[in-house]
Amino acid sequence: MVFSFSLVLFTSPVAAHDRAKALEQEVLELKKRLIAIQDELSQIRTDSSRVEQQVIENKQAIKEERVIVQQKIESEKEVIKKAILEESPRNMIFFRGGWARQDHHHNGISVQSGVAPVGAQQQAPLNAWYVGAGFDFGLTKDTWGLIPKTELIAELMFEYKQFGTVLGNALANEPTQLAGGDLNPRHVTSSTVTVSAAPKIKFLEGYRLRPWIIPAGLAIHIISPPSETITFFQPAVMFAAGADYKLWKNIVLGVDARYHLMGGHLDGLRLNGLTLGGYLGIGF
Predict the structure, then answer these.
(1) What is the dihedral of CA 236, 237, 243, 245, to 10 degrees?
(2) Angle made by CA atoms 188, 165, 269, in degrees to the nearest 5
(3) Which of 46, 56, 234, 241 lies 20 to 30 Å (CA to CA) from residue 121?
(4) What is 137-197 written as a DSSP string?
């Protein structure tokens, strides 16, 4: 009996110690699992925050991109609107003035004349001043698709040139010497009125500075005094070149040079000549 009791007393503490050890091991395992679960939850929270932040950033980026796109659209609208408002007009009225010179003197019925070689017999000057006006009618902005940025224009123009005043011959004498009068010449003004129609090729459509040429145009000259055979009209071919610059809105300032070629003598007249000057244009 004594031996059995001693064995029980010896065995019980050992078993209790083993159970305590096992229990402590289980607690440690549970603690490790809890820590792992906490780490996973923390990682999930971190990932969730990162994803949420990314979503917020993406939303902000989309919003900013939308604003930028809207601003670009508005800017393009303004550019298009401004381009429409500032588009070069198809038509223009212009006013010209400048200097002119004939290649030959203008003889006539009441100035120097071989038909009536009596009286003062002065020749009209070669140099003149001129004024004029005209219209440009736009036909196409790209020569019907053949040449980009090259406009074809129909020009209709008239001008007045005055070469000066001279003393007239017997037919401009008061009274005429042909009727026995004394030398008392009147003043005779030599002038020319020109009406022309021509195709004008204008380059650099859309630019402020635009050169142009007229390869050939028709000009009709009305001369005063008339020729010695009383011819008033004389046709010619007109060649021209120039350029204009857009000052503001539809107002342009330009310069041009034109040459009129008569092509021969018409009733004793040969009035080939040059004009150099400037013009002010208003588009419409």
Answers:
(1) 50
(2) 70
(3) 234
(4) EEEESSGGGTSTT-EEEEEEEEEEEEEEEEE-BGGGBSS-GGGT--S-BPEEEEEEEEEEE
- Of 86, 114, 140, the residue at which a domain comes to its end is 86
Q: What confidence tier does 137 reach under pLDDT thresholds 50, 70, 90?
A: very high
Q: What are the two backbone dihedrals, phi and then psi, of residue 4, each rounded to the nearest 5 degrees?
A: -60, -40
Residue written as token pair 């020009």: 155
Alpha-carbon distance of 247 to 245, in angstroms, equals: 6
Q: Is 205 helix (H, G, I), strand (E, B) or coil?
A: coil
Most confident range, picked from 17-26, 115-124, 144-153, 195-204: 195-204
Q: Structural domain of residue 229, as residue ranges? A: 89-283
Q: Which two tokens stand for residue 61?
A: 């980026």
**Cα 210 vs. chain centroid, distance in angstroms?**
8
- Residue 225 preceded by cis peptide, ω within 30: yes
Rg (C-alpha) for the chain, rounded Å, is 50
What is this structure's pTM?
0.66
Alpha helices in the chain (DSSP H): 2-86
Same domain, 55 and 134: no
Give residue for tokens 């994803």: 51
- Find residue 253's DSSP bridge partners: 245, 280
31, 56, 86 — which closes off a domain? Answer: 86
Tokens representing residue 192 in the block: 């020319």
